[in-house]
């Protein structure tokens, strides 16, 4: 069975909601054609849908390296990389405030890679507020609402942070 036939088997498995079997078929296709960028890309998507971010990133990167002119592969890789950075940033929220600055750095990088990542923008706004950088928090939450005007959490936080900013400014009068 050639690589293309294995890819068809992988898609049949996906249609049957058997993602683990689909992964096996994609991996077998890659064993036969390790330099086939589209196989790595398709496997990456399947890993991502199965919440296997590390493996998804590995194959997304491979696809974008094998076909560096393919913008879709690069976009997919950057989207996954942004997810990874966001996940790492979350770990800093339980630590000291000076560690929260590291979360902001990671989240800024995530939003550069994936400017449409509502989660990264939202977490960055929360981090800024925890650091009492309310102006930045408000600006960041406005970006969330530009991306998703109906985001209820962002709307509520924006109200809270505007009120906290007022109180913060009044404490310096």
Automatic annotation (TrEMBL):
<dbReference type="InterPro" id="IPR011990">
    <property type="entry name" value="TPR-like_helical_dom_sf"/>
</dbReference>
<dbReference type="Pfam" id="PF13431">
    <property type="entry name" value="TPR_17"/>
</dbReference>
<feature type="repeat" description="TPR">
    <location>
        <begin position="118"/>
        <end position="151"/>
    </location>
</feature>
<dbReference type="Pfam" id="PF00515">
    <property type="entry name" value="TPR_1"/>
</dbReference>
<protein>
    <submittedName>
        <fullName>Tetratricopeptide repeat protein</fullName>
    </submittedName>
</protein>
<keyword id="KW-0802">TPR repeat</keyword>
<dbReference type="InterPro" id="IPR019734">
    <property type="entry name" value="TPR_rpt"/>
</dbReference>
